[in-house]
Design brief:
OB fold (Dihydrolipoamide Acetyltransferase, E2P), mainly beta, 14% helix, five-stranded antiparallel β-sheet, 279 residues, 3 helices, 38% strand
Length: 279
């Protein structure tokens, strides 16, 4: 049974608390699929696609639920809890995914969103890591020179610069000749594509990011407020997905535009809403 991966297995036996699956009907290596996970029409001899992991008692078990990460893949997961030995992440299964302190690039807090990969540790347990992302990120981005992008800082290198996952997916970096000393692991940034390397990786700059776009973004936000009859039913505290869907702006760009308009006393921000002030 391949831990951390999807597999197509055969239903070979029914027991009180679930069904046993195996690679072949004769195979003695079997794995439990709990009853609550068993598809209604499944019969002995049928094949079923499952994900294999370990439960809270470190027993290998199958599930038909889909985790947010599989072995060797990467993604953004929410921190649910932090303990003395690491953090526990929500990855879509009943058992949370453990992120050891030694695999962190920075200390994390509950509700943080972190970019991680999935691996098997020395004790044969599935764990998360904030390291080793560079070789996993995609290099076939749709972006070209001078495009504006949003990315998450995930690593620093004295020789090469700050490494960024654009859209939490594409490989990029801010070269070390730029000043990025104010950035921290996990920061979400807006940047401009300086070049696309032959291997598909992006070089970015953040020197022009804030002030060039701010006026245009503020004007866009004003127009949006007018279309909402002067009241926007969310603020910069909304999720990045909501902000992007409703405004077309990244969370950082939205926050800067709202802050700019607030300082100019064109809007009021209170009670989870943004209101256009009449003059």
């Amino acid at each position: 049974m391949r831990l951390g991966e999807y597999q197509e297995l055969i239903y070979v036996k029914k027991v009180e608390f679930g069904i046993y699956l195996a690679k072949t009907p004769e195979d003695e290596e079997r794995i439990l699929l709990p009853f609550r996970q068993v598809p209604k029409e499944l019969k002995i001899g049928d094949k079923v696609r499952v994900f294999v992991y370990k439960d809270s008692k470190d027993r290998i078990i199958a599930t038909t639920n889909e985790p947010k990460l599989t072995l060797g893949s990467y993604g953004v997961l929410r921190v649910k809890e932090v303990s003395k030995i690491g953090a526990f992440l929500d990855w879509g299964l009943e058992k949370d995914l453990f992120l050891p302190f030694k695999e962190m690039r920075k200390k994390v807090q509950p509700e943080d969103e972190v970019l991680v990969t999935l691996y098997i540790d020395k004790s044969q347990r599935l764990c998360a890591s904030m390291k080793g992302l560079y070789h996993l990120l995609s290099t076939d981005s749709p972006y070209k020179k001078d495009d504006m992008v949003t990315g998450r800082v995930y690593e620093f290198s004295d020789n090469f610069g700050a490494f960024v996952a654009v859209d939490d997916k594409y490989s990029a970096r801010i070269p070390n000749h730029e000043d990025y000393s104010f950035l921290r692991i996990g920061d979400i940034i807006d940047a401009k594509v300086v070049s696309v390397k032959p291997d598909g990786k992006l070089d970015l700059t953040i020197r022009e990011k804030a002030y060039i776009q701010m006026d245009a973004d503020a004007e866009k936000l004003l127009e949006l407020l007018k279309s909402y009859a002067g009241v926007l039913p969310f603020t910069e505290k909304a999720s990045p997905e909501v902000i992007k869907r409703e405004t077309g702006l990244s969370k950082n760009a939205f926050k800067r535009a709202a802050g700019h308009l607030y300082k100019e006393r064109k809007i009021d921000i209170s009670d989870g809403k943004i209101r256009l002030l009449e003059k």
